[in-house]
Amino acid sequence: MKSHGQGKRLVKNGLSGIAASGLGGAIQFITLLLIIRTLRVEDFGRFSGLLSFGLIVQYLADFGLSSILVKEFSSRPEEESVLRGKAQGLVWCVSLALLVGSAAVIMVMYHSWVLRGQAMLMALMGVTFFQCAGYTAIIRAREEMEWNAYGHVFHKIALLACIGLSIMLAGGVWGVVTAHALSGLFLLGFYALVAGRRYGLPKIQWDPAYWATLFKRSIPLGSGLFVRQFSWQVDILVLTALTTPYVVGLFSAPYRIFAACLLIAQVLSIPIFPMLSRLSAAGDTAGFERVYQRGVKFLLFLGIPVAALGWSFAHWVVTHILGSAYAETVQVFRLLSLVFPLIFVGSLFPFVFAALDRQLTFVSLSVVGLVLRTGIALALIPLVGFIGACYGVLVSETVVIVLWIVALRRQGLRVEGVRLTVGVIGGIAAMIGVLHLGGDESWWRAGLGVAGAGGVFAALLWWGRLLDAEEREGVKAIWRRFAQRRRPVSEKGAEA
Predict the structure, then answer these.
(1) Residue 485: its pLDDT value, please?
(2) How far apart are CA 195 and CA 425, in angstroms?
(3) Which long-range contacts (CB under 8 A, 24 or more apart) does 356-362 make?
(4) How far apart are CA 134 and CA 147, in angstroms?
(5) On the CB side of 483, how many CA atoms lie within 13 Å of its CA?
(6) Can you say whether residue 425 is alpha, beta or left, with left for phi > 0 and alpha for psi between -120 and 50 degrees?
(7) In whole angstroms, what is the distance from residue 422 CA to residue 413 CA?
(8) Per-residue pLDDT, 265
(9) What is the C-alpha separation between 130 and 13, in angstroms, rounded?
(10) First to last CA, the chain
């Protein structure tokens, strides 16, 4: 019964995450497309650099603290109110310190007052997202992930509305960065309202000793998370240093689309973390391994169709959606499409290592990935341009995920690495083959190709034995319930 309850929560939270990721991702894609089509390539390159700065501020502010708070709240529910008050005090102190520190760095980094003002707005965005984490930690600890999902979608809607207003007012780069800062403030208000009404707003407490304990625990995990998140900004930073704003803008258009999928992947992984924390605290190794294995499969299998679709329709997407100004980036779009399964499954490992208190292992292996990625970018970008950065992403992400799996295997946690690898490669190749037969010249042929590719992927999952016996029985049970609901009322009455 306990295992059944865990599975039910995982499914419920996973479904809310999928729904929010799908809707939020679609809105975010539209928003990013509006920015790309509105700004000149050079201006989009400058905005991309500013966005990287704001995100780095956010990563530095959090530094793993939000995940540690989830673990604290979920493992010590009897002290939740007091812990929340102490945590909120820490969040405010860190936020103020980061704003002051960001202002000092901006004065040194940028010589134009225009860029300084724009960078400060992006720093405000980063700090605001960290403030949100102080409220979402209790939502995640209570496993009420639907509110996390609502906030995710609300933020995307708010950002789209602000960007739309910016376009109407011809705000340019100023309008875009202001929209990002305002939407972050709207999101903060939403989470503060939800947390206050559902759990009450705790009294902010000053407890440096407890803060020091949190920092001590969060720094190993935060170091790994920062390294991972910084890895997705380092390509832009290297291109900025070695090339021109125009080249950065060209690369950033498809790259930002794929980097945004990191947030979608995290939304999908977040529901698994509180469960892993409880299983680890209870010493339930078998249950922990089961959740870990299914999380890896779930995220990998979500990434396969996205990779195949991205590769097959890259030319159409670049030509008809990004615009003719970005025609040179078709190969970038194709290569980055292959990273989707790695992006999805890679988002799970920080939480697995955190639940096991093996953050230092995660940090050291993540640094290996960052060094490899940076080295490949520095070596290849001068030779082959921005395509070199794509090779760096593919190689480094593959290597670091293999290293994580091997490290967890040494802890006694196994996944069917060979079978899953063959399944991922075979699934992507098979789907691309079917999609290629359909082509992208007409809607009806493309639709047939997508339907056929979906059928091939489903057949591979089922008859390729990528699902174990328990998972297959679960799928059959869901199908039987669905079929029963679809039957006419008269048939149900006759059976009764």
Answers:
(1) 62
(2) 43
(3) 356/280, 356/411, 357/280, 358/407, 358/411, 359/64, 359/220, 359/221, 359/223, 359/224, 360/220, 361/407, 362/220, 362/221, 362/224, 362/404
(4) 14
(5) 6
(6) alpha
(7) 20
(8) 73
(9) 22
(10) 28
For 378, the token pair is: 């520095």
The answer to whether 72 and 354 have CB atoms below 8 angstroms apart is no
The answer to whether the beta carbons of residues 445 and 439 sit under 8 Å apart is yes
| E strand intervals along 157-303 | none
Q: Report d(CA 380, CA 391) in Å as an integer.
A: 8
Q: What percent of the chain has pLDDT over 70?
A: 84
Buried b (16+ CB within 10 A) or exposed e, 97-108: ebbeebeeebee
The CA distance from 22 to 25, in Å, is 5
The domain spans of the chain are: 2-415, 426-484
* pLDDT tens digits, 240-254: 888 888 888 888 888
Q: What's the DSSP call for residue 243?
A: S
Amino acid at 263: L
The tokens describing 185, both together, are 């403030």
Nearest Cα neighbor of 253 from 352, 322, 354 is 322
Quick one: tokens of 469? Answer: 């016996």
Nearest to 122 by CA among 192, 230, 47, 188: 47
What pLDDT score was predicted for residue 15? Answer: 59
Residue entry with tokens 């960065």: 177
The yes-or-no verdict on residue 106 having pLDDT over 80 is yes
- Write the pLDDT tens digit of every residue in 314-361: 888 888 888 888 888 899 888 988 888 888 888 888 888 888 888 788
Nearest CA among 407, 402, 296, 295 for reference residue 360: 407
Whether the Cβ atoms of residue 220 and residue 66 lie closer than 8 Å to each other: no
| More confident of the two residues 417 and 386 | 386
Kind plus residue range of the DSSP H or E element containing 71? helix 65-75
